[in-house]
Prior knowledge:
The chain is mainly α. It has two domains: 1-87, no CATH class; 117-198, Leucine-rich Repeat Variant (Alpha Horseshoe). Helices cover 59% and strands 2% of the residues. The chain has helices at residues 17-28, 30-42, 48-63, 71-79, 89-94, 101-114, 119-125, 131-144, 150-155, 162-179, 190-204; strands at residues 2-3, 10-11. Helix 6 runs parallel beside helix 8. The longest helix has 18 residues, at 162-179. The N and C termini lie far apart (58 Å).
Amino acid sequence: MRNNSSSEPVVPVDLPIADRIAAAVKRYGEPAVIDRSIALLKGDNAGEDFLLYVGGEHAQGILDGAPSLYWPELWGARALMHVWSETANETVIGGLDNQSWRVREMCAKVILHRKLHALKRLTRLTTDETPRVRAAAVQALAALGTVEHHSWIVARLRDPDKEVRRAAQQSRDALTARLGLPTAPDSHTPAAEAAAKAKNVEAAADLPADVPVDDVAAPDAP
């Protein structure tokens, strides 16, 4: 813990983030914690002690001279997972355009958690250059999107990143269940491809022996 002076409260830098935010609320009041979190996300200075509340021991390193980079903005967004006011809506949605992928990812998570309306921007993030941002985007669309966003999620089933493909499959299933959409087999999964191959083999059994199995047309992908 960090004690700034004998008259000021101790900042519990070694506690989990939820406990640190609760301590900040006790010290400053929830409206002030929200305002300071928004300020950090905007790139403004919210005070050294508050930086310690939201950033913990890592923040102490920054105060000791380490480069701040994107960390204060990230911590401001993360704090809004624990305290909230609609006054943060615009800043959080705007954070989806932040130059740091970590801030974009965290803002997508806050939007999901707070159920904010930012579907157009979330669809754009499904093609973000960073896999973790793409994954966060499809997860948010699964919970907040409509039938028109189904195709955006399905498109990521062919994502080059394995974790994004996994997130896309889970998100597609979640959106389908939430909206009561008809389910269709996924022709791109290994199980589906194996099933299609087996079907081809069965079809070949009914053909003359001199027709190669590979000449049997595969079923059209859904």
